[in-house]
Amino acid sequence: MTSKNSFWASCKENHKRRIWLWIVAVLSQLLPYGGITMIYLSRIKNYNANGIYRTAAEFQDALYQAAKDALGFSTDMCSIIALLAAIIGMQGFSYLYDRRKVDLYHSVPVTKTRRFAVIYSNGLFMYLTANLMGILFGLAAAASQRAVNASVLADVGLAFLWNLVMFLAFYHMMILAVMLTGNWFVTVCGFGVIALYEFVVYLLLGDLKEGFFRTFTSYFYSAEPKLSVFTDVSFNAQRLEKLPDLTAKAQLALPLIGKWVLIAAALLALAYAAYRKRPSEAAGKAIAFPVLEPVLKVAVVIPAALLVGTLVYATSSENEMLMVLAMAAAGVIFCCVVEVIYDFDIRSIFKHLVSSGVALAGILAIFCIFKWDIFGYDSYIPAQNKVESIAILTDGYYDSYSYWDENQRYVGADTYAKENMFLTDTEPVLALAQAYLQTDEAAVEKMTAPRTMRILYRLRSGREAVRAIVVDYEEPETEALLNRIFQAEAFKKGTFQVMTDETSYDRVTAISYTNGATIVAVPTEEIWRLREAWIKDMEQFDFTMARDELPCGRLNVEYDNYSQRQWCVYDGFENTIALLDEQEAYYPAQLDAKDIDSITVICYHNELTQDAEAALYHGDPGYALYRKAHAAETFATAKSVYEDYTVRETFYDEEQIAQILPHIHADYLNALWGNYKGMDQNYSVEVVFKKDTTYPYRRDSYYFSYDFIDGQVPDFVAEATAYTE
Amino acid sequence: MIEIHNVTKHFEKIKAVDEVSVNIREKTVFGLIGTNGAGKSTVLRMIAGILKPDEGTVAVDNMPVYDNVEAKKALFFIADEPYFFANTNAGTMERYYSGIYDAFDKEEYYRYLEKFNLDKNRKIGTFSKGMKKQLALLLGICARTKYILCDETFDGLDPVMRQGIKSIFAKEMEERGLTPVIASHNLRELEDICDHVGLLHKGGVLLSKDLEDMKCNIQKVQCVFSTVEDELKALNGLEILKKEQRGSLSTITLRSTREEVEARFATVDTIFYEVLPLSLEEIFISETEVVGYDIKKLILG
Q: Which of A107, A118, A275, A348 to substitute to test the interface with B, most B CBs within 10 Å?
């Protein structure tokens, strides 16, 4: 028998006063889980009735998947549960807003710990009951349609855990917000600040770095907040919804759940400590602890004003004066707003000028830090003995189409390099960083081939730093240093996924080789031999080769999830070419004039358009130019910008075709590799094969797109496509 | 006993209570009077353990009261605007309080409800202000705590109800030693209830005395002396608090016992003299005027 003043009796008593919330909680779980399960299953049955599924097994799989979709990970349920957590947290402790309620609850002989525990555990119990009711109802509905198996249960179980820990994090966040504030409006604002602060600060720092630091790059940049449950959920809930199997979901969800448990525990500890310390007289005030008022004001006003400043900076062609004015105005306005909220009195608008001054000084100080690079961000190069390893991304030399993770999901080139490139020979990279440290816009203008290189320094201390430099690919010393980097196995592993991906070849569904005009299938069982040959050939790969040579073909490797990877083949890749020859799949990149019916060359005459643009704009960018272009006196010039200067010429003569062929390269292959020299953008080339040729060109196309290699347009072609008025 | 020692409480920059020291003895009705803003509610809320003093101590039966369940078990606090749960009735409130106060007397509670014509099933939200105060008082009485703290609870109660509550207080004091502490801004409201009165002004205590002591030690005499010498002889050595003269009729307020005054006046030649009873109001006027305050401005308006 329990005492009538026991914990459970107190819980029961507390529940009686939260009946409306019980109704909201139960409905918020029962309707979505139950309703959506029934809708999804009914939809699958309709599909089946319409003959969408070919086999019973396919139909059964669709039912299981529908049950998972309805009861497993769901972005919508995450939103509902987060909202429910906030409502339960606020309602439970909202008595603290009302002096009359505080007088009652704080005068009766109940310890603060007991009261906190009762309200807290009741909120949690309410959620758990409602959530489990919803899930069980949904599972019952699914079971009645034979849509439940162990896999569905495991998926639902993992989602339940995810939602529970997420609920706890937001629940604790809201309780902390209630403890720090004295009325619902400020509590909601406080909850927003706690939930979003880190995310906003990261966003702001990214914007400021991008705006003011020459060496900033968003590649490798870990802008994700570390402690923000809000961003974790926002970024990952949808991914979890789409992941194909439970293992992949668990790999993504469990580390986050573990992190959230710690965050939730810390928030709860803070909330409880604040509850213990919270004075009863805080009821109805904006902030429960007066000492926090100036701190919160400064902490909120500074990032808010800086955000306004960065917005103005971005929309005013990077006008720093406007940015400063906008920040100052926003700072003053936000300070006034905060004071009005604190006192609920418009007359308090200019109260506490000291904290307002600190906030404005903070805004200005942060602006100065970025404007004048006080901490030397742009001049940072770590000492060689402090660098553990380096990863780099060089313009034009990463295979940006073809990185996939172990679950065959696309990943960015920087993510792949970050995980796979560990250059321990750091000297050439640091030498490049040193050589190009002072490269400003004027210096870049003078470069022959300026290209951006992003560097991820992994320091021995465990810290990471990312910088971008602009290097000149045509500069001999740079070429030597880049060759040293490109020759390193670590660079190749971090650039070509085929070097590191050793496990996924059993999922290959098709292999083909193309030289731009042909496409020939290679048996999939050859994948291991091909890989071995290609890796062997890549030993000769270096920067000079990447810069100066064009691939003669491309191997396409297709996977069971329709993802593709491409391996470039160069003329010097003897092992690969020999293997392709063996499979009768290899055709040289250069075509034979005997097989060609015609070549049409299109010259766009970009130089004329550029001249007209220059005359119109005088190098003055922006919206003003648009207005200028519409002014009467410049109308004629403006018209010339939009005039079509294109000249087309078709060559049928075999001799002329033979002269053109060595200087063109398949468009299909260019796009793949993206050699910095690239193709001559002023021309397009269309190659049409003879209908009676035996050359195995792809018959699905009438013509094939080629480009002139930069600077290799034959004179007779240039003359034939010259522009005349 | 409730011991308040050098207690100070600020609300931001406002000093609501300034070094207050008062002892509240058991089995007495303690009246805490003062103007609005004098700090009565703050003192009561500190006694109830709701507010934590910035300085000083508040102890109930030698136990510090703030966040101390054992000390709070001896207290029941009735706020100036008592809070009842939304959409609730007297029965629900009983169940809440009986879950908290182990000695809550349910039978007596329902008996009192009937006696005061309070429907236990009627929503409290529909009660009048006076009915809510009655209900709060009954809950407090039936919680059977040693101390009941009433903040402006008697203000606005009709005379019949006041009398009813008064008699319950008397009974409870008699039977189990209840100690009511009643705060009010109106001296007249407390006159017929309190045994001991503490006067608060601007956060500090102006005086704290037993009413009986005050009544016994202050006398008002109206008299006409035969000669000036008689007057001098009669008043010599007595502490005169106030003296008014209208023609030959003197009205004298002095600090002394009735017996001593009568004995003194019997020795001199007077044409007429009479020792008159003093109202609580008059006693306060006299006592506070001594310390330089005009009580009429402070309490009586």
A: A107
Strands B179-184 and B30-34 come out as parallel
CB B38 within 8 A of CB B203: yes
The closest of A522, A514, A519, A495 to A569, measured between CA atoms, is A514
A326: phi then psi, degrees, rounded to nearest 5: -65, -40
Which residues of chain B have a CB within 8 Å of the CB of A13? 95-96, 99
Beta strands in A284-400 (DSSP E): 387-394
d(CA A124, CA A103): 26
Instruction: Determine contact, residues A43/A62, Cβ cutoff 8 Å.
Output: no
Closest alpha carbon within chain B to A10: B99
CA of A183, closest CA in chain B: separation in Å?
18
Give the model confidence (pLDDT) of A82-104 as tens digits. Answer: 999 999 999 999 999 999 999 99
| CA-wise closest residue to A245 among A336, A310, A307, A152 | A152
Residue ranges in chain A whose pLDDT is less than 50: 1-2, 400, 619-630, 632-633
User: Where is pLDDT greater, at A611 or B87?
Assistant: B87
A697, A545 contact by CB (below 8 A): no
Residue A283 falls in which region: left (phi positive, over 0), alpha (psi -120 to 50) or beta: beta
Which residue does chain A place closest to B69, by CA atoms? A109
Query: Which is it for strands B30-34 and B196-201: parallel, antiparallel or unpaired?
Result: parallel
HSE-CB for A578 with a 13 A CA cutoff: 10
Q: What span, in angstroms and rounded, lies between the C-alpha atoms of A15 and A121?
A: 11
Q: What are phi and psi of A704, to 5 degrees?
A: -120, 135
Whole-number pLDDT of residue B298: 53
